[in-house]
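Reviewer comment 2.1 asked that we show a complete input and output for one of the modelled complexes. We chose the iron/sulfur cluster case, as it is the one discussed in the main text.
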Amino acid sequence: MKAKLGLGGYFSNPIDDPIKIIRHAYDNGIRFFDTAPSYGGGELWFGEALEGLPRGYHEISTKTKAITYHQLKDDLKNSLETLKSAYIDYYFGHDFIDSVESWHSHSQTLLALKFFKSRKLINKIGVSGNSTEAAVLAIDSGIVDCIMVPHSIMHRQFDNVISYAKMKKVQVITMKNFGSGILLGGNENRMDQKASVSLQNIMNFSIHNSSSDIIIPAVRSVNQLDELLHAYKYSFELSYEGTLQIEKRLTDFLGDDFCRFCNYCRPCDMHGWSMSQPGILKAYLYNDKFNIDMNETYQDYKLNATNCTNCDNLCSKRCPYGIDIKGRLEESHQYFTGGN
Ligand code: SF4
Ligand code: SF4
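Response of the prediction step:
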């Protein structure tokens, strides 16, 4: 089954005006738009870019982090106003399935979501997050119409969960389809030169081999969006051997324990969300493998390996790829500062 191409709303350091990018997406046939109040100007941009277009021909997805009924009511009201829409097509509990605990702690919000769905302010209830166990609980709950989970040719933890969701008639939207840019080698498609893996092939996998219903890559520019649209148009199903070959090329180049930015290791057990292990590892990988200057980005992190004192590599125990996070942070620090 061919997945639909949607547009992700996380415009990190956009080169072009996000409103221009959204309108370009619409003009070129994209009809699914994902955003969240926490994505910078996210909802505002979508509200403005899509204003006046006939409703019913495109779908808007946004998210809430509410814990209580009243918070949800306020969030929903704000999102409807900002998006300038009478209803929301997909309303996601943001990170509700990041852990089993998180799933259970949002039981009140889920009931509230059901209530607002019955009032037709929401068409579909979704939950997003990174935990396979929590995703299964959500699928089994009977409340959730859709899950949003990370998935790409090099991030396959959710393979079985996606099949299960399909069996239970729960829709699947996949995010991080290009591994937060890593599978492209940044924005200039360096992976093609470095490992002979084209954007086309990464797209082929997500569109035809992943069982996803909708993918939501984010872009920084109109040009980048045009590249995705082109790859989508000419996408085809990869053979089993073809998939293995691409995985091998990526693994040969990146190693099999590169950070996939799944965020399972966060928050840091000692410093909470102030420590960004994935951010530091990404800076290291981009600079080291793709020669992208990430020195300034690294220096901007207030916490780094020097702050991992009195900790027995606790976050590593949560890493599904067995990365020695403390060791890798130390390597990064050495790399960027020469140990100073
Ligand atoms: S190893 Fe460092 S980043 Fe990981 S939990 Fe310990 S202090 Fe936090
Ligand atoms: S270090 Fe491991 S757990 Fe943390 S983001 Fe990277 S892959 Fe995920």
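Residues 268-271, 275, 277, 308, 311, 313-315, 325-326 surround iron/sulfur cluster (ligand 1) (CB under 6 Å). We note this here for comparison with the apo prediction described in Section 3.2.
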